[in-house]
Amino acid sequence: MEQDSTDIRPGERLAHLAPAEDACLRFIGRIATPFLTREDCPRQGDLDGPVCRLEVDPPWSDALDGIEAFETIEVLYWLHESRRDLITQSPRGDGQTRGTFSLRSPVRPNPIGTSCVRLVRREGAVLVVRGLDCLDGTPLLDIKPDRCAYTPQVAEKAADHG
Ligand code: SAM
C-alpha cells in the first residue's frame, strides 16, 4: 500500500523507510467476515460476535486435523490495508500520541493482527469462528490452538522440532 506522508494527525510522527523487504510470509488463506469497511470492524473481536470463516487454501486443509479439539484458537492475520510507517500515533486524532508498540493499532511496521476466537465448527478446509475484528478478505497467516487451552495438555518437550 502506498504511504501518504500528509495523511497524519497532529502529534504523529512517521518514519521515512526504504521499501519493505519481503519476510517471505506465506498467506495460508483468507478470512471472510461481515465487515466491509474499517468502520464496520469492532476495535477488538467479541467471542459472541458474528460468525466469520477462516478459509484455508487447499494445500493446508489437512493441517487443520485435530483443531476441532479446541474451543478457542488463536488466529494471526495480515492487516493488509494498514499503513506501516508511523512511529507515534494519535488513535483518537486528538493530538495525544503514543508509541506504535504501546498500541494494538493495525498501523505498525509489520501489520500482524492476532485474535483468540471461539471455534464454532470445522467445514473441511473452513473453520467457522466468532471473535474476529478484521475486514472481509483479510489474508490469513496462521492458526494455533489457544495457548491457555493447550498448555495443560502439552507433553514434555520433545528433543526435535522445537
Ligand atoms: N485484534 C487484532 C490485534 O489486537 O492484533 C487487531 C486489532 S486492530 C485495533 C482492529 C482494527 O483494525 C479494526 O477495528 C479495523 O479498524 C482495522 N482493520 C481490520 N482489518 C484490517 C485490514 N485488513 N487492514 C487494515 N486495517 C484493518
Structure, explained:
Keywords: S-adenosyl-L-methionine. It holds the Pfam family TrmO_N. This is TsaA-like domain-containing protein. The protein is mainly β. Helices cover 2% and strands 31% of the residues. A hairpin with a 2-residue loop joins strand 7 and strand 8 (126-130). The longest helix has 4 residues, at 147-150. The radius of gyration is 18 Å and the shape is globular. The two termini are 35 Å apart. The model has no long low-confidence stretch (mean pLDDT 91). It binds S-adenosylmethionine. S-adenosylmethionine (SAM) is lined by residues 38, 41-44, 79-82, 104-106, 113-115, 133-135, 138.
Give the termini distance in whole angstroms.
35 Å
Can you name the CATH architecture?
Answer: Beta Barrel
Which quaternary structure do these chains form? single chain
| Annotated CATH topology | Elongation Factor Tu (Ef-tu), domain 3
CATH level-four homologous superfamily name: YaeB-like
Rg measurement, Å: 18 Å
Number of domains: 1
Strands of the largest sheet, in order across it? Answer: 2-3-8-7-4-9
Provide the CATH top-level class: Mainly Beta
* Mean of pLDDT: 91
Number of strands: 9
Sketch the topology as an H/E string, one letter per element: EEEEEEEEEH
- Pairing-aware structural class of the strands and helices? mainly beta
**What percent of residues adopt helix (DSSP H or I)?**
under 10%
By DSSP (H or I, 4+ residues per run), the number of helices equals 1
Could you say which overall geometry the principal axes of the C-alpha atoms support? globular
Strand-residue proportion: 25-35%
**Ligands (ions, cofactors included):** S-adenosylmethionine
Query: What's the story with the biggest beta sheet?
Result: 6 strands, antiparallel, barrel
Low-confidence stretches are none
Organism: Puniceibacterium antarcticum
Protein name: TsaA-like domain-containing protein
InterPro entries: TrmO-like_N, YaeB-like, YaeB-like_sf, YaeB_N_sf
Keywords: S-adenosyl-L-methionine
